[in-house]
Amino acid sequence: MELAGAELIGRARAGDGEAFGELTEPHRRELQVHCYRMLGSFQDAEDVLQDVLLSAWRGLDGFDGRASLRTWLYRIATNRCLDALRSAARRPAKEWDIPGVEPPEPTRLGEVVWLEPYPDVLLDGGIDVPLGPEARYERNESISLAFVTALQLLPPRQIAVLVLRDVLGFHADEVAGMLDTTVESVKSALKRARAGLRRRRQATASEPPPAAGSRVEEALVAKFVSAYESADVDALVALLTDDVFMSMPPLPLEYEGRDVVARFCSSLFGAGRRFDLVPTRANGQPAFGAYLRAPTGVRHGTGLFVIALSGGRISALTRFENSVLPAFGLPRSL
What we know:
This protein is α+β, with helices and mostly antiparallel strands. The chain is 45% helix and 16% strand.
């Protein structure tokens, strides 16, 4: 342990809050992203992170320095997330509540209805962190909505092992220490988690997205905004992949395929609803605050769209409730 770090720990153990903050602040954002990956909810991740830091503050005497402080904090964070996944009643699904709009029959009902987006403005310092040599995923892929959603379909222990091993690249013995288990148990859980994730992601396989901020992405985003704001269903559908996927957590309705997504958009626009879109980014993907135009001239925030791109088209649209807008610095009305 470096002298400066040892001195800070000594001061923090003596009750110096500033010293504790100096110790933990460099890891705060990446711990929040870690909690988000495990829980799938931005709000839950924030809440658990506060508990993690409080637990670390109270338990600092138990830090013996055999592992790094970062590893020790990840141990606390992972176990607090496991506690949350096992014990908390996840938010229930909602029923359709848009008056005057009758949605088409969904393709299926989704299992992950508590999902929330993660603002890109908070990713700085959260994903650009040192990864172990065994990490298997690109940083942007491991924060995408598709990846985070797929994680939520795994059992809690498998989520923890896969994120720690394949996303962050911790060694198997480090993960075993974090979870108070054996290396063999970690390897077994990782094998099952990889198989489960592979099945889910094969079903949603697609071409790589264009680079963020590239001309291809900007052109596609501009066409989407134009089509959506003008309620041009034909122009919107022309941007979609054949197997485009649409979901609306916490509504369980899920739609797959251009035809059914087109019918959904037609039902929305056919009811006279018109929107303005305010661009932002979530989970490394283009996103938009959606504001419903009213006769008064005030536009009310109805939700947030996040789109996934595949090659030069849109492969997924996820719509979240307006409660997520403040996390993106977006107002409830314009």
